[in-house]
Amino acid sequence: MLETGYTVPVPRVERREALHFMGWHGSALDEMLIRQMDEAEAELSHAVKPRVIIRKFGYDAGMNRLEGTAYMPGGKDIRRLLEECCSVVLIAATLGDVPDRLVRRKMLTDGGAGFVMDAVASAMIETVCNEEERKLSRQASREGLFLTDRFSPGYGDMPLADGRIVCEVLDTGKRIGLTVSGSGIMLPQKSVTALIGISRKAQNHRPNACAVCQSRDTCALAERR
Asked: What's the CA gap between 137 and 135, in Å, rounded?
């Protein structure tokens, strides 16, 4: 888990993740929507170059501070998440500015297709982060360590302003082209910042949405995940 900034492969989008960003609640899917999702994924996959930067810091739980920095993650929720942790990983990831342009262009000609493309792009950056988290989990396991859930600014009572601090600590503007506007919006918009704690003790995790879904055994989307 060294400090680095790098390009990662474009992941296959988890369809359920994209539907989540559309506000889907299990209703039947029509063929047009599925086709729009597949077309959006294909167009984005040929155009984007996901970039990621990851850096590991020692963590003083008593002081709630990342070692070597002045950063003290804000909010009670993140403090509870990190209370048994000895280290914290900061992650920043972006798809670049291409999805922003493609979505705007699509919205001008077909609002429905633009909405779908926006959701697919959101799912794509989440999938990038999921893949990186899985890599970190495998490495931590080899070292006898355990990860907490991934936690982003804006979750729970963690201020959105922490996203700007994470970007400053990681120097994301220079390394992967990710900045934060004066109003706190990440630019490019299809970007994520997050913290993951590392502990010597096993950690409780939020259940996977599929694991607790009553339709998990009959859901048509389960095969794709």
From this structure: 5
Owner of token pair 């909405």: 115
Question: Could you give the CA distance from residue 161 to residue 72 in angstroms, rounded to a whole number?
Answer: 12
Report whether 130 contacts 138 (CB < 8 A). Answer: no
- What is the model's pTM? 0.87
Q: DSSP character for 123?
A: H
List, in order of start, the domains of the chain with CATH numbers.
4-212 (3.40.109.40)
Closest CA to 125 of 95, 150, 148: 95
CA 155 to chain centre: 12
Query: How does pLDDT run along the chain (225 residues), one tens digit per residue?
Result: 445 578 999 999 988 899 999 988 878 888 999 999 999 999 999 999 999 999 999 999 999 999 999 999 999 999 999 999 999 999 999 999 999 999 999 999 999 999 999 999 999 999 999 999 999 999 999 999 999 999 999 999 999 999 999 999 999 999 999 999 887 889 999 999 999 999 999 988 765 544 434 444 545 444 443
